[in-house]
Amino acid sequence: MNESKDFLRTIVEEDIKAHKYNEVVTRFPPEPNGFPHIGHAKSIAINFGIARDYNGHCNLRMDDTNPTTEDTRYVEALKDAVEWLGFKWEGNVRYTSDYFPELYEYAKQLIKMGKAYVDSLSEEEIREYRGTVTEPGRRSVYAERSVEENLDLLERMKNGEFKDGEHVLRAKIDMSAANMKMRDPLLYRIRHAHHYRTGDAWNIYPMYDFGHCLSDYIEGVSHSICTLEFENNRDIYDWVLDTLGLTSPRPYQHEFARLGINYTVMSKRKLLELVNENYVSGWDDPRMPTIAGLRRRGYTPESILNFCHQIGIAKANSMVDVAQLEFCIRDDLNTKVPRVMCVLDPLKVTIENYEGSEELDASYYPEDVPKEGSRKLPFSREIFIERDDFSENPPAGFYRLTPEQSVRLKHAYIISCKEVIKDAEGNITEIIATYHPDSKSGSDTSGIKVKSAIQWVDAHRAKTAEVRLYDRLYTCEAPEGLEDLNPDSLKVIKNALVEPALITEKPDVRFQFERQGYFYADPVDYTDEAPVFNKIVGLKDSWNK
Ligand code: ATP
Ligand code: MG
Ligand code: MG
């Protein structure tokens, strides 16, 4: 931690040194309007990570002030994501909606101080009156309402006497402030909508700028960490707390750069569209950048946290290459998971000179992985190899089986092609081969040189599996919309063949399929009778840009 302290931890350490707070308290404050994505993982890692590093605590707060988009389902998804990443929030989950009564009292206090007023301009007029960067705004005539009238109107807004948009509550700050956000920002708006927690109790809902700082204060937050786009909102944050004289402890806002990753989108609105319009199978579709999607794809929490650590915390927005995320999962699984064999597009090979059957002893791990374990691989005269591991007219540099070139069957023998059998259309249907009895892996005395070892499965003992091959969701680095979706982001192989130990022994739920990549037994659809494996990532970064 010390070797590369980020700017947020530097701030926290300075505050600790200055005895500014009794305890470091952070919060992760999502709006429950969608499933959290990898960007939220960054925020979770920062907020919970800082609390952990400085013996403080982190709250999980649902920032639920928008009744039309929020749902308990998303609350559950957010809790799941935080827990899965390995963090614990302090006490119960908090909800901004639990603070509605308190927030309302603070609003009345501002009115009484002459610092807030009910405005009755239309939305359009409010925008027009605000002015521009070069032109100061002007204040609404309604800003001169008396305290009594303002209190009365706010109460009636709350009770539902007015239609949406008829009035708003605004802070009375400065209509010519250089920071446009400070030109009498909105504090409350009318919404006649059912809230998933407070039902129909409220007809007014606090705006982010009012609710957020006060929720932080109510919870005793010391460091309120948010993304860069809120930089200009910081003045309002400070104004509300200072005007109300809320000081012990007084939270401060600090901004960091949002995470963006290429070939995907990170806005819940766009992700919701993919779900609602069935472009993906759900929020947990393995192609989604959601934590639920990455999890179902087979990503580990360790790989995601390591990714968040690697990208660091910066003050300037940037785009991270998805290859870096892929590197992190590959790196994590490389030292952990068993190597097994799967054939995606089977081509039958009959080994003419082999009689009977045997069980070959095969280690699950290569020598450079310090893990133990092996399985028995059934072998007989009929096996399947990958169709493209054979070539009748091999291009230069083709190292696998050809009519002239022998190949090793991984963990087994060297075979040579004797005859190629084709159907009426000329498609290859079978290879007749011979094996070399003295070439067995581990005790090879044949002296035959081969250029590669290929995966294979025994024709009689292999199990059929569905394999889902995932590719990037979008075809371009900075997708704009649906037109950029990758039409080939999912390819389903219904009749792949896997060696039996995967299913009978279950040495793990994640595997390296030799020469294919890393795969994960789909946690939803997998059964022993109908196994389903998701491709997590290929063995190397071979994606063509
Ligand atoms: P979206 O555009 O996906 O709706 P949001 O900022 O509205 O994002 P919230 O639920 O309000 O989503 O975010 C909760 C917390 O996560 C906030 O503190 C927010 O700053 C942070 N966060 C959201 N997206 C990212 C991201 N891409 N990178 C880093 N932090 C993020
Ligand atoms: Mg938000
Ligand atoms: Mg949002």
Structural overview:
The chain is an alpha/beta fold and 545 residues long. It has 3 domains: 2-259, HUPs (Rossmann fold); 262-334 and 463-498 and 515-545, Orthogonal Bundle (Glutamyl-tRNA Synthetase, domain 2), CATH 1.10.1160; 347-460, Ribosomal Protein L25, Chain P (Beta Barrel), CATH 2.40.240. It is 25% helix and 24% strand. It has a 7-stranded mixed beta sheet with strand order 12-25-26-27-23-24-13. It has a 7-stranded mixed beta sheet with strand order 21-18-19-20-14-17-22, with no helix packed on it. A 4-stranded antiparallel beta sheet has the order 4-5-6-7. Helix 7 packs across helix 8 (234-243). The longest helix has 16 residues, at 38-53. The mean pLDDT is 96. The protein binds adenosine-5'-triphosphate and magnesium ion (MG) (2 copies). One magnesium ion is lined by residues 31, 268.
